Amino acid sequence: MMEASKCKVALRDIVPSETNPRGDFGDIAALAETIRATGGEPVNPPVLVRDGNICRIVDGERRYRALCEIYGEGSEREVDAIVYDTLDEANELVAMLATDDKKPLTEAEVSRGVQQMLVLGVDTERAARASRAPRGKVTAMRMMAGRAPEGVQVTLDQALAASELPDEDAEAVLAAGDSWRWEVSKIKSRIAEEGRAAKRLEALAKAGVEVVSEKPEGLVAIRTVYPYGTTPAALG
Asked: Taking Cα atoms as reference points, which of 2, 63, 39 lies closest to residue 14?
């Protein structure tokens, strides 16, 4: 079992983690003022892991940045920290997403963190608990993340929507970027119209009306019905 100890670490020896899913660190100056008001140390110390002669941040980069605001980046000032001697990458990510006292992550940041955890083998239940995301969305991310185009970040809501669609439509949603909701709406409208068209054909068949795709030679067409999504020009 990995154990941690509380100790003093110089700010100059603390470095952020490149795997942190957070992109927006919020109002650091305001957080620094709060820390000053409580004695110059955050109520909850940053969580670190030793990495050679330095300590990498597992949780608490906002607190670290606020301490740098107070004492100066690279300061010799020693601050309280919870330090692990070793911690694998998967557990680092779990810790980054799991604490209660931080600025809420955005949807994109949570999605990025969940996707990273799943890639590193964190199971669905643990990833859901750490991210506070519904299990169904985490399950959908596990199903869909590998099908997204290279370099495209999929959100949890986007993965869930894609998981409920046929394969080709799912891939279109995953590739749609920020316009994925419009893509889902378009696909659902098409599917609904296809369903209505199928019901109309079924009703005509029950009434004994023969439905043909081409006008029989010698007959006069009263009305021509084109399949959904096509035009006379498209049909040639």
From this structure: 63
Question: From CA 70, how far away is CA 29, in angstroms rounded?
Answer: 9
CA angle 106, 112, 116 (to 5 degrees): 145
Q: Are 114 and 138 in contact (CB under 8 A)?
A: yes
Burial of 70 (0-12, 13-18, 19+ CB in 10 A): middle
Give the pTM.
Answer: 0.53
Condensed to tens digits (0 to 9), the pLDDT of residues 64-118 reads 999 999 999 889 999 988 888 776 665 655 666 655 456 677 788 788 778 777 7
What single DSSP character describes residue 209?
A: -
DSSP letter assigned to residue 175: T
Q: Which of 119, 113, 104 is nearest to 21 (CA)?
A: 113
SS3 at position 61: helix
- Rounded CA-CA distance 209/205 in Å is 5
What is the torsion angle, in degrees rounded to the nearest 10, for the CA atoms of residue 19, residue 23, residue 24 and residue 28? Answer: 40
Distance CA 201, CA 210 (A): 9
Give the phi and the psi of residue 27 in degrees, each rounded to 5: -85, 90
pLDDT tens, position by position, 169-189 = 998 998 888 899 999 999 999
Q: What are the distances in angstroms from CA 184 to CA 30, 68, 187?
A: 40, 45, 5
